[in-house]
C-alpha cells in the first residue's frame, strides 16, 4: 500500500519500509511509486540487510529501480547517474561499477 505523506526526512522522496508499505511525498510522481515498487518486489529481511550494508548491492538495486523510473519518464537511466552516485553512500568500488554500468 502506498501512503502519501507530507514529509520524509533527509531529502528522501520515497521509501519502501517492507512488502506492502511504501511512503512517498504527497507530490511524488507515478514514476517514483514505480521505482519504490521495484524495491518492494525484491524486499526480504535479507535484501534489507544487504541494501544497508553493501554499497555495491545498494547501487545495483537503485540502478534497477531508476531504470524503471527513467523508462516511465521517457529519459535515459544515465540521467540519474549523479543522483545514484552521490545520494546512496557508495564506496569507490561501487562508484567505479556504476560508471562502467551506466556510462560505458
Q: What general form does the structure show? A: globular
Determine the structural class based on helices, strands and strand pairing: alpha+beta
Number of helices: 5
| Overall pLDDT level | 95
* Major sheet characteristics: 3 strands, mixed
Q: What kind of oligomer do you see?
A: single chain
The percent range for strand residues is 5-15%
E-strand count: 3
Nearest-angstrom radius of gyration?
Answer: 13 Å
Q: What number of domains?
A: 1
Give me the strand/helix succession.
Answer: EEEHHHHH
What strand order characterises the main sheet?
1-3-2
Please provide a written account of the structure.
This protein is an alpha+beta fold. It has one domain. 58% of the residues lie in helices and 13% in strands. It has 5 helices and 3 strands; from the N terminus they run E-E-E-H-H-H-H-H. Strand 2 (14-18) and strand 3 (21-25) form a beta hairpin. The chain is globular. The N and C termini lie far apart (37 Å).
